[in-house]
Amino acid sequence: MEFTAHEIASVVRGEVIGNPNVKVTNISKIEEGVPSTLTFLANPKYNAYLYKTKASIVLLNHSYELKRKIIPTIIRVHDAYDSFSKFMDLYLKFEPIKRGIEQPSFVSPAVKYGEGTYIGAFTYIDEGVTIGENVQIYPNCWIGRNSVIKDNTVIFAGVKLYPETCVGENCIIHSGVVIGSDGFGFVPQEDGTYKKLQQFGNVIIKDDVEIGANTTIDCATMGSTIIQKGVKIDNLVQIAHNVEVGENTVMAAFVGISGSTKIGNNCVFGGQSGAAGHLKIGNNVTLGGKTAASNNIADDKIMMGEWAMEAARYRRVYAVFRQLPELFRELHKLKKEIKK
Fold first, then answer.
1. pTM of this prediction?
2. For the segment 143-157, what is each residue's pLDDT rounded down to a tens digit?
3. Which of 76, 87, 128, 282 lies 20 to 30 Å (CA to CA) from residue 94?
4. Would you give the DSSP letter of residue 32?
């Protein structure tokens, strides 16, 4: 597809500076820009590339002051990163959308599905499943009995939804995701073995959730594991049984949440961070990378470090930690002087 600078500006509500009729057919990084592509500048680390890029159109914040003239046509916008995202949405709308049921696949006669549904080859959809309108289910998926998938959700290849799973509208579930597998529940026996505790619950995914590749979300022992509206989960995340993740919370890769922990709204979990079981984590909490929460956390806290200290305290502690070798030598020297 071709887009002119004028057409793009109308979508992102920007101001064209340069040739409004210049056309682009693709996108590019600003440091790798080539003719007929659109790029953007949002991070000051890439400022120098603005004056070197060969891209045809650059999205640029209104607040950015040019040091000298540049060759590409500029579209001035309030937020270049957000505007680039809006253009990508427009670009993808022109991609062909698949419809119908490919063969070979198995769809139970008891399945209900709406208009515009696509079911890819080698997919198995069990009895009692309800599928909304414009749902895309790519090949090699398994949808367990009595599951519900609502309108405009995309499920990529190789996803497994265990029975009774509920997925809301406008969700994106990437390849390899497993939703509804048994929680990690075992009862110790007198002889040292473990007896499996049967899991009877399900998983509920609310609207506008995105789940990254190879993430696993366990069903509840009883009741539901719940992922609330607007949650964004990266690849390779583990969410255990009976967890509840609040609205608009984001989790980077390798996050692990233990069973029955309740997470508030608008939280941020850095890579490899996590929480022990049966905790309550408040709203607007941030856990830095590799931070492990072992106690409840109140609203509006920023936590860092292996044992989840408040960020300001953690920085002070770490400043001392970095000086430990020198402090130890000084202490050893003082002990010798005292002994003398």
1. 0.86
2. 999 999 999 999 999
3. 76
4. G
